[in-house]
Write a structure and sequence with these properties.
Helix content is 59%, strand content 0%. The protein has helices at residues 3-18, 27-44, 48-57, 70-82, 88-100, 126-137, 141-154, 172-177, 182-188, 200-224. Helix 2 (27-44) runs antiparallel to helix 3 (48-57), helix 4 runs antiparallel to helix 5 and helix 7 packs across helix 9. Bound molecules: adenosine-5'-diphosphate (ADP) and nickel (II) ion (NI). Residues 29, 33, 58-59, 135 line the site of nickel (II) ion. The site of adenosine-5'-diphosphate has 16 residues, from helix 7 and helix 9.
Length: 228
């Protein structure tokens, strides 16, 4: 099997797997992340084949599909890659990217103090940086806003409730189980992403998307108060 066939087969596998779920990990998210990640990878001189495969598979192992079981998700990615004719070394690299990418992993676990030691992870490869930045960019800007309200709506969350303040230091467990209004998610995650970018291009793009998030929030609260 050549690289093109491996990518095509994986694309089909991902489309089929994600079509069964609607928690916000739709195919078009994967499509955008894949293209963004490849663009960043070219800038960074990262391995495009690894980046493309990892971008395609990055949400397959999401804990949300496995009732919170993170290990089962990682195993699923490994199983798929093992069914293809690629080297174990490459499999390890891709599995590592897909298991490290989640924003949730940068949050402290319950009882653990929030500290800068959790971030950045010291052994980052260029490939991991490209895919992670791409995934984070897709949670920002106009698209990020659409995704946040889609996610909130799916879980019957209100758009906003002035009585429920955003949490300043959310833990991994809280992130998984939170039931707060979607606007809070902007403060608990989306606005933090700009300073979490790994690559130069990622940072540049994140700046513009961040600006748009702020613009949106400004308008949102003016409308909420009936000022405009
Ligand atoms: P990650 O895989 O980086 O941990 P998620 O799977 O948690 O990201 O998020 C998928 C999408 O849903 C993202 O666009 C994210 O911003 C959005 N999302 C996640 N949690 C919430 C929430 N509590 N409220 C609104 N949107 C959310
Ligand atoms: Ni994703």
């Amino acid at each position: 099997m050549n690289k093109k066939e491996i990518i095509e087969k994986t694309e089909l596998f991902v489309k089929q797997t994600l079509s069964k779920d609607s928690t916000g990990h739709d195919w078009w998210h994967i499509h955008r992340v894949r293209n963004l990640a490849k663009r960043i990878a070219r800038h960074e001189g990262a391995d495009i084949f690894i980046v493309e495969l990892a971008a395609l598979l990055h949400d397959i192992g999401d804990y949300k599909f496995f009732q919170g079981d993170e290990e089962a998700g990682v195993a699923k990615v490994g199983e798929w890659l093992s069914s293809l004719e690629i080297s174990p070394l490459l499999i390890d690299k891709i599995v590592e990217i897909t298991s490290q990418i989640s924003f949730m992993h940068t949050l402290p676990a319950k009882g653990e103090r929030s500290n800068k030691k959790n971030f950045p992870i010291p052994t980052l490869s260029k490939e991991l940086m490209a895919v992670t930045d791409a995934d984070r960019l897709d949670a920002m800007g106009a698209i990020g806003i659409a995704r946040a309200f889609t996610y909130g709506g799916f879980f019957n969350r209100p758009i906003y409730d002035p009585a429920i303040k955003p949490s300043k230091s959310i833990t991994r467990e809280e992130y998984k189980t939170t039931e707060v209004p979607s606007i809070n998610h902007f403060y608990e995650k989306l606005l933090k992403l700009k300073n979490m970018m790994y690559t130069k291009l990622g940072r540049k793009m994140a700046k513009r998307r961040h600006r748009f998030l702020n613009l949106y929030l400004k308008q949102f609260f003016k409308e909420w108060k009936g000022k405009i």
